[in-house]
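Consider this today:
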Amino acid sequence: MKGKLYLFPATLGESPIDESLPSHHLHYLKSTRHFIVEELRSARRFLKKAYPEIVIDDLSFSMLNEHTSSTEILQLLEPLKQGHDVILLSEAGLPCVADPGAALVALAHEAAITVIPLVGPSSIYLALMASGMNGQHFVFHGYLPIDKRERNARLKQLEADAWIKDQTQIFIETPYRNLQMLEALLQACKPDTRICIAMNLTLQDEWIRSQTVERWKKGSVPEINKKPAVFLLYR
């Protein structure tokens, strides 16, 4: 019998565990000893917060991030092939959604290993829900180009897709470049194009605003620098 691969979500920042994750998720933490994580220190901290009684030294941790080679990812399946259940723990939010892990899940399917996704928070979907934009036709683009000229060209293309295809465009930025992204949006987009910024979702200072470019320009600039945010663009 092969083990099962559980895709375990994590909180978005320091939000309370019991407000973000179903309580029955603790059952999986209590019964699993093999973990695949993106960053060891934060994973240990999350596990202790979610289940204080857990004995970290009894657990086995493997790393999976952008530096993990395809050969190393394949080796991560070994405990599963030996019959052990394994938890793929996200750094924040849902595993494999703007997060490493998709390659591992693909290999698990090829090896006929059962994959079980668990319910949890996703900044992308929470932002879409709260934006008032099209939730039936949308695209997530991840990070946009850093180069100003390439970024502006990309934003104009996303705006065109939003209007022509009736499609919500969703993307993220490294938090310390949030203000530059907002400035680029206000320069590149038409006055009646709508922009939503969803910041620090599920945290105490959660902040969400959705309005036209024209209204963004007339209002005060929000304090979004160095805070995790999701950007959405729609007609």
